[in-house]
Design goal:
Layout lengths: L5 H4 L4 H7 L6 H15 L5 H15 L3
C-alpha cells in the first residue's frame, strides 16, 4: 500500500499548538516522567531530557 505523506504535512504536534497558543505544555508529563523513570530504573543519565524540559519551561516562563 503506498504511503500518503501529504496527510501529515498539515499536522501540528500538540506541544507546538500549546506553544503557539501560549498555553502550558505537557512537557512535565512527557519528559518529566521519562527522566524520573530512567533515573530510577537504570540509574541512567537523562541530562538531555532535563535540558529539553528546561528550555521549554523557559519559553513558558517568557509568556508572563
Amino acid at each position: 500500500m503506498p504511503r500518503k505523506p501529504e496527510v501529515a504535512y498539515g499536522h501540528k504536534a500538540s506541544m507546538l499548538q500549546d506553544v503557539e497558543a501560549r498555553r502550558q505544555t505537557e512537557i512535565d508529563f512527557l519528559n518529566g516522567g521519562i527522566v524520573a523513570l530512567r533515573a530510577r530504573a537504570r540509574r541512567a543519565d537523562a541530562a538531555q531530557r532535563r535540558r529539553s524540559r528546561a528550555l521549554i519551561k523557559g519559553v513558558e516562563a517568557s509568556w508572563t
